[in-house]
Task: structure prediction
Amino acid sequence: MRISAIRNEVALMFIVGVICVTTSCRSRSNVETPASNEPSAAEDVAQADQLYKQREDLVRVRQGIILLHQALIAEPGNYDALWRVGKFNYYLATHTDNSAERDKAFRDGIETGKTAVKLQGGKPEGHFWLGANYGGSAQSSTLAGLATTDDIRNEMETVLRLNEGYQDGSAYMVLGLVYLQAPKFVGGDSQKAVEEMERGLRFGKTNAFLRLHLAEAYLKVGRTAEARQQLNAIISMTPDQNYLPEYKEAVAEAHKLLEKT
Result:
């Protein structure tokens, strides 16, 4: 994360250096204008991705969000930065203990997600992370009314039309959670939750959270043996190295559910 004060100091040192050179080399009439050392939007995005790999430390996630917004200042229509803001904010919102930070993160994720979808509506990333932030905000009592089950469902169904296997079948998982958690009078249906998540397993055999929520759905419909099978599969699987933080969380939850069943 760059700090403006440091940039100013570096710029001042550079100017002083140029003055020294021009006064000692009077035979040169012109001095070449130095190329800008400012990182590009693409470099900011790449650096943010490196920080996200350390996301168990929320400081790194916050730093990544700052870099992504910095990229958007330089290049407002940068789709790669826009959808990542939604992704980073979703992780931050679902892991912070600060309710104000959580609410702000969900709002930021939703706003940038809407912009990403407007710019590149034919790509799945913007729709997925917009829908994920809709889902997170819908579960937050202080953000009631910011999103509806229809908003979440519409985004995830769009993801499935564009790339059914995106995020290892996670769109099916989110749709399943909508059916699992919504009251019956607004479309909640545990059996439909099972059906959606079972479809997702075609793409998400190593998606630990998909298996975890499928186990929860199985328990809701009385299929205890199948729930235990999914929970044991989580614990015994070889995790995807790109999703180790999520895998650790899923394993912890799987052990808790196994104790109850």
